[in-house]
TrEMBL record:
Belongs to the methyltransferase superfamily. L-isoaspartyl/D-aspartyl protein methyltransferase family. Keywords: Cytoplasm, Methyltransferase, S-adenosyl-L-methionine, Transferase. It is found in: Cytoplasm. GO terms for cellular component: cytoplasm. This is Protein-L-isoaspartate O-methyltransferase. It comes from Carbonactinospora thermoautotrophica. Its EC number is 2.1.1.77. GO terms for molecular function: protein-L-isoaspartate (D-aspartate) O-methyltransferase activity.
Amino acid sequence: MTSIEAYRARLVDQLVRAGVLTDPAWRAAVETVPREVFVPRLVWLLGDDGWYTARELDADQRLELAYDARLTPVTQVDDLVDARPGDRGRCPSSSATMPELVVTMLEELEVSDGQRVLEIGTGSGYSAALLAARLGDDQVVTVEVDPAVAAAAGEALTTAGYKPCLVTGDGAAGWPDGAPYDRVIATCSVRWIPYAWVEQTRPGGLILAPLAGPFGNQGLVRLDVRGDGTAAGRLLARDVAFMRLRAHRPAGRPDQAERFGDPPTRPITLDPEEFIGDRFPAWVAGLPVIDADASVGRGEDESASYWLEADDGSLAVVDMPQQQTAYVGPRDLWGLVEDTWRWWVEAGRPGPWTFGITVTPERQWIWHESGRIWELPA
Ligand SMILES: C[S@@+](CC[C@H](N)C(=O)[O-])C[C@H]1O[C@@H](n2cnc3c(N)ncnc32)[C@H](O)[C@@H]1O
């Protein structure tokens, strides 16, 4: 056994032990696809200061990083192209998703021979290669929005011997030229489901996508596409964290502090610390304000305040030391969060599987099986 074969066998072993690699057909794909080809020499490593720094790996480091089931090599930060060793950045914008998550999602996709798959978010190209190995090059379309990322993925796919249809473009529009698909899989997260994905999926087909919320935390949903142009499905038990589809990123609004003035305040009934960093609860808390963006502000004394803002001009600030909140604009964003949180706690903190999403051409909404719904601004 060469050392690369040994690495690949180790990866398969890790995935089997983790209980995520159960299907022999996916196992054969993982055993075949050379993941090291999809991890570039230059990757971004996270430092203690919260910044990423570009580092060049030697061959052994690259193999170690590529073949660990639970490591996600970050391959691009802040949409930077032509990065050099030592460059620094804040926000990962592309990666070779950790194999454990890639394989979990591929198994959840429930593909069978002969099916056509549309992948949104090519990234490194590794998951597209697995799909091509499993289903055949002609059955796979993969869309990447960033031309530099797409070019690198194209090279890696060629080196590895796969030729899926690689499209550079906005995956929110799907890829109508290749439709209809039996499966759509998004490897970037969305606040709601772009309707083009439903339109381009055959009735009876499935859409698998990570759902994002304003607090940056996510659930994984699988929708059945019906013959009447609608789709619906429940969240899967596993929560995941993915980079956003570009159009669903936080808006990056100018500083709103001046707009805020001195509005009336009230005590909070929910401290953001109760859910921040706790993926699924944070996604639930964000449901009534899915279009809003959250950020943390620091006062001169380093005290934290929590900001929530939306395109309709709604702006709420939660003052953590004072445990109070105030808002301007049409919606009391924090009040809405508190209301949903109160409901969730009183309902006994129901889990992901009890939530779902329904998508129609006109509107879409998240529902809980008890009957409560949250309209999405799609
Ligand atoms: C987590 S990475 C994908 C990982 C990849 N599937 C793999 O196996 O390596 C997410 C990718 O989605 C891409 N992306 C973001 N918005 C997109 C969009 N609107 N259309 C297509 N791709 C998009 C990003 O550029 C990034 O490369």
